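Intended use. Records like the one below are meant for learning the mapping from a protein sequence to its folded structure. Do not use them to infer anything beyond what is encoded.
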Amino acid sequence: MSPYLIMKWIHVLLAITALGANITYGVWFTRAGRDRQHLAFVLRGVRMLDNRIANPAYGLLLITGFAMTGMGHLPVSTPWILTSLILYVLLIIIAAAGYSPTLRRGIEALDAGGPDSPEFKQTAARGRTIGILLVLIAVIIVFLMVTKPGG
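Structure written out for the chain above:
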């Protein structure tokens, strides 16, 4: 088995881990909305999953992706790679500037005013919108990585 294939296997596992964790957030939030006594636990759990599992996996995806371009002699300027990298940078910016702070503010708003407070409802709606956008961007990146259009 070649080092490239091992790196590709690691890369795919990281993508499954990162995107898979992200996709579960909606399920957890939906369940917590129906059983609000667990809402704080769910918010903190999602924050932990995001900080300790999904985000590190996204970081390692960049490293393994660049390793594969080097090992496979694939130019970063290859259209599907370049487009994926641009989307990746956009994903990281939106996550760092939008999702993570919104999740933190949602926890603070829940602690301060409860689940019916206007601030919590506003941050929950914002987090839902940003979360959906991030998952869509990640799914597009996976599509590009798998189908390699034009290349």
